[in-house]
User: Fold this.
Amino acid sequence: MALKNLIVLTDDSSGCAARIKTALVMANKFDAHLTGVYAQGKEYIPDQVLADLPDEISKTVQSSLLEAANQDAQAVAQMFHDQVEKAGRADKSAWRLIHGHPNYVAAVVSRYADLVIGGQSPPKAPEIKIVDPGEVVSTSGRPMFIVPQEFKPKGYTGHALLGWNGSREAARAISDAMMILGPESKVTVAFMGPTSEMPESFGFDIGEHLQRHGVTVEQVELERKAGDSGQALIHYAGE
Assistant:
């Protein structure tokens, strides 16, 4: 299945611009429609704090928070439209401002797209404003492409790194990734730890599976230090 319907999750964090640019790179490559979604959660002040304030002051505070939230949303919408216009994809784009908790909104809308482009959670992110990609992946039933906060898009390379340990999660990841991998793609399959410790495969090989899709495959075995497979993959990807 080709990618034809993309959603990019936006917010007012520093990584949003790179996220939109990355989504546009994908939209251009696959000639896909791109919808920008901004989930506007209720600005949060503890109830006990509001209860201690006079009614008029409480209403003023809540009104100010809502106004600030609307200004943030408008600024992000303008950034989205500017980037889409610059990329020449205004006729294949849309913008949606949705009121609701970002995690819930992201999980629901992702079910109506081929792929959702989200962002890495920044340190100490305000829970009510920033999507938690881990929660969305586990509740949406759909794949998610996560763009790091400091990422600088350089185009679509067609080279993917797959961490393989024979698990259900790894199998689902490569199945989802096949939407953006094709004959021009290269996949480096990184085995986490000795292949002798992998689950029973009955003689099947993940490299052969990918090659039958026309994908060029390289297989490497990484040393797993202190059981931290994630850090080992990030280090290898950097190299």
Summary: Residues 55-86 form the longest helix (32 residues). The longest strand covers residues 33-40. The CA atoms of residues 185 and 211 lie 10 Å apart.
